[in-house]
Every structure is written in C-alpha cells, then in structure tokens.
Amino acid sequence: MNFLIQSNTARLPNVLQRTRLKTASKYLVSLQHCNFSATPDNDDTSQPILSPTQTSLALSVHFMHPKLGMKDYEILSRATAFLVNVDPIEHTSSPHETLGTKKGRQTKSAFPHLKSNKEKRDASLLKQDYAYEPASGPRRHDYQLNWLEFCPVNFRPRVHVVASSHVVSPWKWPQYYGQEWLKEVNEEHVRYSLEVYGSMDKSQEIDGEEGKLKGSFGPVAKFALNPYPIHHPNGLDVAVIHLKGEDDALENMKKMGITPLNLHTMSQLESTTDPVFEPGEKVYFHGFEVYESNKVDDETLSSNDSKNQEDDRIFHPYFASGTQSFGSPDRFLAKTPSPLPEGLCGGPVLTTQHDNKQPLFIRGVVEGIVPPNHENAELAGAASYLPSYRVREFIDFAERIMLEQIVDEDVFQRVIDIKERKLASRGTVYGEDQMNGGSNKDGEDDEITDPNILTNIEGLSEDDDTPNIDKAYQEIVSSLRQHHTPEEVDAILATVEREKKEVIEILEKEGGDMDDAIAKVRQRTYDERDRVLKELQEQMQNESDESKVIDAEVVTKDEKR
Fold this sequence. Notes:
Layout: E1 5-6, E2 15-17, E3 23-25, H1 52-55, E4 57-63, E5 74-85, H2 112-128, E6 159-163, H3 165-168, E7 190-199, E8 206-207, E9 212-213, E10 217-225, E11 230-231, E12 239-241, H4 246-255, H5 266-271, E13 282-290, H6 295-298, E14 315-327, E15 332-335, E16 348-350, E17 364-369, E18 383-387, H7 388-406, H8 409-423, H9 432-436, H10 451-454, H11 466-483, H12 486-509, H13 514-542, E19 554-556
Antiparallel strand pairs: 1-14, 2-3, 4-5, 4-7, 5-6, 6-12, 7-10, 8-9, 10-19, 11-12, 13-14, 13-16, 14-15, 15-18, 16-17, 17-18
Helix pairs in contact: 8-13, 12-13
Region (Disordered): 93-120, 429-451, 538-561
C-alpha cells in the first residue's frame, strides 16, 4: 500500500525529469518511517543573503577511451556538487541563533591571532595523539558514533563531496543512456574536478524570481578528485567522492569562501520530535545553471564524433526558493517560481537563505524536476529532492565501506559489534544482510531460567522487598528519561540487561560475591571499548604509508582545461 504525504488530494507522479536528463521514470515506494525536519527560515532580511558560490561547487567529469578513438580528455557531464563535513559538530538549538551578546553585538578579542594559533596547535596535536573519543561533536554513546569516527582523524577524510550519481557515473544509468559505446566507459577512463566560482565584477545580487545571480562569474580555481566514487546501493540518485590532497585543497577553498555543509547524525534524526515533512515549509535550492545544450544528453552520449566539437558550456551560480508541497519516503517536492534549470542536480537544499554565521545543515539533495508538461498542473515543474534522512542513511553506508577498507577485518568486526548493540534489535534501512555484516552475538545468549539463580537477582525474587526494589528501579528509569534522549535510555538499559546476564553466568559457573561479579563485568565493558579504539590507533600508526599520500592538485583558472 502506497502512502504519500501530501497537502491535498493530488498524488505524487511516478515520472520525474532530471534537470540534466531527458524525461525518466522513477517510481515511488511505500512510506517506511519519519525522521527529521529542519527549522524553517525566519526571513530575517537584516542578514546578508547566502550566495550559492559559498555553498556549491561546479563538478566536471572528463573522459578518454582509446577504443573510442580518443586522444585527449573531453567533457562527459557537468552539474553541481557540495561539501559535507564528516565529523558532526556542536550546534545551537536553533540554526538561526546568532553568536554574540544579548544586544546582538559580536564579542571581539584584542588578540584574535592568539585564538587562531591555539586552534591550529590543537588541531595539529589531535592528529598526532589520537584520543579515545570522537574528534568533535556532541557527547554520544559508542554505538551512536558515525562509522568513520572509529578511525583516527589523520586517516579519514574531513569532507565528502556529494553529487548526483547519474552525473558522476553516467554508465551506471542505462535506463537513461542507451548508447552502446558508453558501456565501455568506467572509472578508469574518467577524471573528476571541482571548480570554485567567483564574481568577475564583484556583484552577487539575486536576479528576482529566476534566482540567477547578476553579473559575470568565472572559475577561480580547480581541484582534483579521486576517481573512486561510492554510489547509493538501492539506486537513489546520489554519490560521494573525495578530494585529492584534501588538507591543502580545503585550506585553499576556505580562503575562497567555500562553506562545507553539515548533516545531522542518525541518532539526532531518530530522536528529534520535529515533523519529517511540513507542506508549506520554505526551502532554498543552491547550485549552478549550465548554459548551452546539454552535451551529456544531446551530443556526447549520442555520438562519439562529438570529440571534435569544442565544449563551450559555462556554469553560472543559481539560487531559487521553493515551498514544500508533496512528499514520499524517498523524495520531497517543492513548488518553485519557475522550473529549476539544467545543472542543479546534486546541489544542496537548505532551510535558510541568510548567512547567519551558524553551521548550515542541509535539508536534502536536488534530484530533478517533475516534467513541466505533466498532466497535473499542481505538480508540473516542481523541484524534487532527496530528504536529509535518506542522505544520512547513504553516508552511513558509504562510511562503513570506507572503514572496512581502512582497518583490519577483526578490528572492523569489533566496530560492528559496538554498533549492533543498538542496531540489532531495530534492523537497518538496507536490510540485515547488507548492512549488519554479521550476527548479533548478544542476541544469541541463552536465557537464564534456573530459578535458584533468578531468585538471587535483585528485583526478580518474591521477597517482601521486591515491590520496593521495583519501585526504585522505575524511579531510576524515570530520572534517566528526564535527562537523556529515548535512544540513550534504551542504550543504557540494554547495557544493564547484557551485563546482568553476564553477572548471572559468572555466579552460575564460578560463584563468589555478587559485587565482585558486577565489578568484573563492568570492567570488561570498559576494557572492550578501550581495546577497540587503541587497536585502531596502533594499526593506523604502524601501517601508515606516506608514499600513498597524494599531493593536492590545484589548477588555476588560467590553466588550459
């Protein structure tokens, strides 16, 4: 049974048009669960407008295949991409709160360089001496850490480059591209690059409802990407790829004003009480319009003779606002003043248009548009995007793959064990076989049924004190729920249950004092956590191979493309 969130009786179409593709079919699936909705923008016009040149990057995919008679790299596809931070960060309760005094003024230091130098020293020391805690973000239980947080910071990327799968690897989308020669192309024949665009005349004004920035814009610098993208396992149109020489690249991007965006963790998405979808919520689309005909559709993919034609398409930063109208589990629709132009696929969807100096969290990733000639006028031309919870599920999937390639098998399995203490009883989005990677050892424990043992466990006997003990237990649980999220309480109680079973096993097999057994089990829990993190640190340090480090590849706008 299909259940679609909608604001009226009209239903969501099962055919979507990509902004960089010809009309293509995309079927909706049944609603599975609701997770998170960001706070809508407050329309504070006193704050500067957030430019898409700060949040978005121009992605170009070039290819060369000798079997196709090619002697040089040529353009294959172009669209929008953006950066999302790997590590979660602390954020205010409202994304629109400003830093400063109650009067709204920013507090300034007489020696700002001292703070900057201290931050640089702390960052350097953190990479040299990895501590047994995540590099950043709010305090969480072990199972709540993202997959790459189990890897020391100097062995994991700082950002993911998020883009549309059909732009990164067109050959993976035969339902959209029927050309036989494209089947010969793969990652070995392509190279990826990101360009930072800036104003050539210092003008970045929004041009009315079109959302096209006024003025002339051009590439400021080009950055190379590693040719190892990871695609969504279930066919959603999203992929991640990573920067070459990341530290140097990010340092240069920061100087050029690029802002890496953020994505809430799965524990935050699951614990929020905010609605997943609200009709009428305002969202903002950032990215680049691509001028001229789309050669990835009309020329490059229709004939390999196009290699002799000069690619004269250009990027231009584009901004558009939208109002949410319909939603399904995998995509939301938003009405825009006019259909989004070619090139915005893969761009970020935000909930604010103002640069309020706070961390920016994405609402989703642009997927495409409903065909403008759709029979339902309410849906025709609407923008379609993947909601943030689907993006988070995919990022978790990608980070798990990356962690498995970085660490030894036994260490990776221990990380799985830590994560599954929370996930095993709930299942996962991608199914047990694909995502869990192993059986739940804790779930295989035999239940203790010996009445002689059970009567010695507090709260389980029929003594006169049992009601008082149960009442005290309930009061403790009630207190926990007042100070912790439901997910944290579940984790604490699950740990208590597991440790209780281990205490019973010790008393059954070895006997002895209960307090000693409890202390032994609790220490075992601490030792397991520390052992995993310590082995990660030692493995990374011992197996470091500096010869595998790729230097940054920064290409200026004057370099021949």
